[in-house]
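It is worth pausing here to work through a concrete case rather than discussing structure prediction in the abstract. The textbook approach is simple: state the sequence, then state the predicted structure, then interpret. We follow exactly that order.
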Amino acid sequence: MSQMAVLAIYATKTGATEQCIKVLAEEISNCTICDIQTEKPAIEHFDSLILGAGVRDGKIYKPIRDFIKKNHQQLLEKKMGYFICNEKPKETEEIFERNIPADLRETAVCMESFGGYKAYAAPKEGTDQLKGIFVDKIKAFSEKFNS
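Step two, the predicted structure:
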């Protein structure tokens, strides 16, 4: 059985989400990455989507929020995964509840927080770019999404 193409769409401010999506794309075969802030994703060409966003004040970044609003109906028909980058794991469930409509949460294959860092604590260039990010969670997410 051939692997379906997966489109991973993200929005990032500090770069954490971008780091996560790169790791994710290595784990998921046939995965195309799309930075929603610079390109418009052609979701009709994909059966599976992963949406990733950073979080500020309990809200996922606006480009992804807007994307979910605009494509709500279409997203229900696709295999979906959602991840966020937030440095407060205790708030993860609440963030998903507040930012992703119930019907989308119910049909999602996986939803996870991959950790992250505060904007001012972003890793310096040349240092470990995955500081504060749970790579094992990314791997677990991709296994679940691939199965």
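Step three, interpretation. The helical segments are 16-27, 62-76, 92-99, 102-107, 135-146. Residues 8 and 96 are 18 Å apart (CA to CA).
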